[in-house]
Amino acid sequence: MHPQLPPGFRFGMSTSAYQIEGTAGLAPSIWDTFAARPGTIRHGEDARVAIDHVGRYAEDVRHIAEAGTHDYRFSFSWPRVLSGGIDFYDRLVDALLEAGVRPVPTLYHWDLPQTLEDAGGWMNRDTAHRLADYAGTLAVRLGDRVRDWITMNEMNVHTLYGYALTDHAPARGLGLEALPAAHHQLLAHGLAVQVLRAHGAATVGVANQHFPVRPATGDPADRAAAGLFEELTNWTFSDPILRGEYPNEMIAAGIGTGGAQLDRDLELIRARLDFYGVNYYEPTMIEAPRAGKDYSGVLEVDIPDGMPFSPVPVKSDERTDFGWAIVPAGLTEILTTLKERYPHLPPVIITENGASFHDGPPDAEGRVRDERRVSYLDAHLRAVSAAIDAGVDITGYFVWSALDNFEWAAGYDERFGLVHVDRSTLDRTRKDSWYWYRDVIAAQRRS
Ligand code: FCB
Q1: Interval 32-61 mean pLDDT
Q2: Is 416 touching ligand 1 by the criterion CB < 6 Å?
Q3: How buried is residue 29: exposed, middle or buried, by Cβ count under 10 Å (0-12/13-18/19+)?
Q4: Does the active-site annotation cover 352?
Q5: How confident is the prediction for the chain on average, in pLDDT?
Q6: 143 Cα to the center of ligand 1, angstroms
């Protein structure tokens, strides 16, 4: 039997601009600059062509719509909009609506125009105002047809990997000095909510990544390290939105904005949301750094020496081909934790969840038999259902991702799609998981 979600529950598929569109002819983004530097992307790949979604969007909309998908989450490329390419989104939105799919775009999914980075990027408060202007441009152009909006994607991952560490663009490596980048993105979120509402948006939300943070042992030092890491990577990005404050004084001091200005910023940032988007992949395990232990290579991400916490692998028997632990119960756990932490939590939408398996090319019968993805998604939908049973109001779920795509620093090896994309021909093939998802949605309709 397929996982059962309540009547009215909405099923979606998710992508982001940089990972699928292709950037040829656009003003550069921080990811183009990053990818051009040797040693940043696993095999030195880049996203100039990506999966040529811009050239093939009509076909891609069919893959999305013919599964019965209710909602499609994509993101706008800020460089494309700046380069005069907003027409593309007109065409995409029209194609989606014609196919009966509701567009749910995200304003910003990490591809900051390089010109803005040159002016300080997210470390510069002014970038938040530029984001608000860009939100206005999009709302004016598309607001007659796009009713549902997501402001920002995973501000925590962008801050941690891009500003605190060097694993993602713009690779600033600022450590805890990166906290202003968090505040300015949150401010951008708050300003965008205001702009989108002023232009008549029906619903507005955000997509935040959340994960349970577990101490490696019961030792008080490990617990304290895990607690701080949890505040920095989870609550720094949700407390301001859902409570109007930062989780602790060290963080509040670190963001670099204070006094009356901070009060005004938090007033904007805490604006009411129609839904709260949660991206979930795996829990994190943290220990207090052990003297003399070499953490390099323990995980894909190296935390610089001197930080008060060290991520260690989550204990799990099952992993995706990306090495991520498969822990569906972690999704139920984080959803119930959010509900406990925020009594006025808006309805939740799972804005991303999925798994990379290195699916081979279609077999002789043209099938991509990705049963491990099916079982991953099945288990996580059941975890969502368990959270609903536990009292969390959850109204939708988006699979990451509709199609195989450019997985940031990991390049094209990591395949998250329901639809397989051949790297040389760019041919699309529906995987077994696509057919499974179609059946889940159809079963839902009948129930
Ligand atoms: C998330 C990102 C998304 C994708 C998935 C696998 O952190 O938001 O773009 O890369 O991970």
Answers
A1: 98
A2: yes
A3: buried
A4: yes
A5: 97
A6: 26
User: Residue 137: helix, strand or coil by DSSP?
Assistant: helix
Q: Whole-prediction pTM value?
A: 0.98
Phi and psi at residue 303, in whole multiples of 5°? -85, 130
The alpha carbon of 102 and the centre of ligand 1 are apart by a number of angstroms equal to: 21
160 touches ligand 1 (CB under 6 Å): no
Of all atoms in ligand 1, which is nearest to the CA of residue 414? 6
Find out whether the beta carbon of 75 lies less than 6 Å from any atom of ligand 1. Answer: no
Tokens of 170: 């713009």
> 308 C-alpha vs ligand 1 centroid, how far in Å?
26
Q: In angstroms, how far apart are the furthest CA atoms of the chain?
A: 66
Q: Which of 31, 109, 154, 373 to mutate to test the pocket of ligand 1 (most atoms within 8 A of CB)?
A: 154
Query: Can you name the residues that pair with 152 across neighbouring β-strands?
Result: 108
pLDDT of 125 reads: 98
Ligand 1 centre and the CA of 86: distance in Å? Answer: 24
Q: Look at the alpha carbons of 139, 142, 144, 149 in this order and tell me if their dihedral is positive or negative.
A: negative
Burial class (CB in 10 A: 0-12, 13-18, 19+), 165: buried
pLDDT tens digits for 149-182? 999 999 999 999 999 999 999 999 999 999 999 9
Q: Is 351 in the pocket of ligand 1 (CB under 6 A)?
A: no
Ligand 1 within 6 A of CB of 157? yes
Answer yes or no: is pLDDT of 447 > 70.
no
Closest among 91, 96, 97, 73 to 16, alpha carbons compared: 73
- For 428, the token pair is 């699309």
**Burial of 184 per CB tally in 10 Å (0-12, 13-18, 19+):** buried
**Phi and psi torsions of 425, nearest 5°:** -95, -15
**pLDDT band at residue 246 under the 50/70/90 scheme:** very high
Question: Per-residue pLDDT tens for 376-395?
Answer: 999 999 999 999 999 999 99
Of 400, 403, 418, which is best to mutate to test ligand 1, by the most ligand atoms within 8 angstroms of its C-beta? 400
pLDDT digits (tens, 9 = 90+) for 251-282: 999 999 999 999 999 999 999 999 999 999 99
Helix, strand, coil distribution of the chain in percent, nearest 5: 45, 15, 45
CA nearest to 13, candidates 343, 440, 316, 364: 440
233 lines ligand 1 (CB under 6 A): no
Torsion of CA 297, 299, 302, 308, to 10 degrees: -120
The pLDDT > 90 percentage for the chain reads 95
**H helix count then E strand count, the chain:** 16, 14
